[in-house]
Protein: nicotinate phosphoribosyltransferase
Amino acid sequence: MRQRLTPDSFALPVEAIKQGYYSDSYFLRTSEILNKDNHHPRVLMQIFQRQSAVLCGMDEAIAVLKKCAHQPEELTIHALYDGDPIDPWETVMTIEGDLANFSHLETVYLGVISRQTKIATNVQRVVKAANGKPVLFFPSRFDHYSVQASDGYAAHIGGIYGVSTPANGSLWGAPALGTIPHALIAAYEGNTVAATNAFDKYIDPSINRVALVDFDNDCVSTALAVAKELGDKLSAVRLDTADNLVDVSVIPQMGHFKPTGVCHQLVTNVREALDREGFGHVGIMVSGGFTAEKITQFEALNIPVDVYAVGSSLFNDNINFTADIVMVNGQPCSKVGRSYRPNPRLALVK
Structure:
């Protein structure tokens, strides 16, 4: 039997959600009207979206319903599971009960499912493009800190190899991974070797030594300098050249490809230099502007990347979920075009 995360897994602001702090006002007024009019029909709410996607956010949406409905024990919920592939218009969840009991939660649970499905879907696309190579989830700095736990969980559902913050891994027990930031190199007066040595001296030996080598825009020379200094202790180098720069090693080869940023020629140059100097054990991690499309191009050209670290592109686009009442007191009742669509894949939520 498939397992779900328990409602207690999520740090929900229960009282604030119950009071409608995060709800669209018309949902709150709906509950107010129904209660004042003593009108309590039993409705069936149906949730769907409009594209092929990887579903995520079900477990947290269920937690919202179970912890923040006024009488959650009176709701009947059927739902798909996090990680299920879904089709356009497919019903992913139904909620049955007195609308006044849960009307105030619609904004919250739809937002949860929409965001997490977007991230899980984007991650799966990148993971598929990477052709079995590890992909790291590195976009947390581009959004509010409060979403890191759920974002990291959605990335996990999408197939990510690792995440960058403790919060990212909190719901699935993953450690935070990372390399060396430009800030540490700058603090050592721009000396990448000195910064990497400091990392090696003070950081737990179980952590891989991955040197960031683009600080001087000369990745080949810097990679070789760090490799000669650390030897077998160096696990990999990371290339993160800005998209408005051309690395020193690439300039003589310009002409028939886009030379800026972490281009395929730069990766090839670094790999060939490391191999030539006897550092074949040192892997190459790339970051900065990577998308599923760019990774697909790299893999088609057989570019010698070992790890892809992907950032803001994993937050691109939106997958918007909608909730509609489709049954009232056991009889069909819905907006035109939104009739009840039973889904045999839905499982009863206990």
Summary: The first helix runs from residue 14 to 18. Residues 246 and 260 are 5 Å apart (CA to CA).
